Amino acid sequence: MRFSADQLARMLVESGARSGPLHAQLSQGLRELIELGELPIGATLPAERALASALSVSRTTVVTAYQSLSQEGRLERRQGSGTRVRAAVQEVERETVSSHVLAGDHAAAQFLNGPLATIDFATAALPCLPVVADTAAAIGREEYLQLGQQHHGYHPRGLPALRERLARWYTEDGLPTTAEQILVTSGAQQAVELVTQGCLQAGDSVVVEEPTYRGALEAFALAGCRVRSVASDAHGMDVAALARLSAPRLVYAQSTLQNPAGTVLAPDRARRLVKLAEDEHVVVVDDTALAGTAFEPARSRPLATYGDSERILTIGSLSKLFWGGLRLGWIRGASRTISRLAQMKGITDLGTSLVSQQIGLHLLDQVSLARSSRRSELVEGLADLTALLAESLPSWTWVPPRGGASLWVRLPGADTTQFAQVALRFGVAILPGAVFSASGGLTEHTRLPYAVPPAVLRAGVHRLARAWAAYLGDARSSVPVVSLTT
Length: 486
Description:
Helices cover 41% and strands 13% of the residues. The protein is of the alpha/beta class and 486 residues long.
């Protein structure tokens, strides 16, 4: 397995900030990735010069780090064959867990590896709304006893009462739905993975917009699909460009609110996408996980409201609106399709937590309150972030989002894979735009969260401004990590 310089640079960003000389920081980061198995035995590391460019350090820094790890017996370097991860003496011929998907950068890295830096701008997770704790605490012992009396407690399709409630929720919003059309999942990510496993085979063609949700890209890659992309602008996916492609097996869209750009699919494009699904027999996955965070929810409609085709699968979630810790999502689709996906879910997951589902059942009565609360905090956070950027980083640009928890920002002339390394030295972690791209493009972009405390937001932007000045100047100089109050 061969790692590119950009790929390894992203892995180092996501594994966290470090202190000390740059060569020591690099050797420590590589050492941890090797120990965790993210860099598997036999993996070929990038050439010194290429990695130095991706990390915005001198070639000497990389040479010194490689030499240090070679002396420890973790790397082997051979003239003409490059640098490889070396098996320790006690290692067997093949690792116990050796799946290829364990190598490389991935969306869960920042959650698996702990805090990324003093200030973490790499994640855009939303804080838990107080109504979640209030609702969970208000459920009494008798209700939990009744829940526990439901035989074995396994419901692969989801708690019947919750499925009925979700169906009624859609119906009340103008999209007639029955409980048989709902499959409850452990979050929207599991929903994406179930659809991927159930609708796609290795080699199938998938089209996404550019940029798009990173977790979906990883699910499609894991399934061995051929992923193509079409551009996205302030009005959402360019459906006209999509229509010019040879018909794919599946299109992954985000009509109600796009992650990470915060755009909403225009009604005329939504209608054309639904018609394309019907005419070309294309499966369309409409991920509406962010819908509850829209600044103007009345203007945000899922694709199924434009034509309830059997080929449209709608993904929903309570994670963004209420709290990610609930791990509660769902798929809405044709009854037969939902039944088949439920069979697949039952093979690997006998059911999502009934306790979370019972809490979610009550939270659905609090949706209006939650949307109002979430909208207020997000609008305020966005205003704070854009004011700080205008003051400290006036050359950075963006299209105003219509919801969501992050701002999709363009850094003119930058390679954000390189800039992310410089920013990390100033104690703030960001993600390169390439991780949101099917083709590894979008190198001038990054995603900045604004659902963070004002003091942290202010400190983070000030650090980014200093990092930007260093990047435009001598990005290869050693820079100490600054304090939170800087």
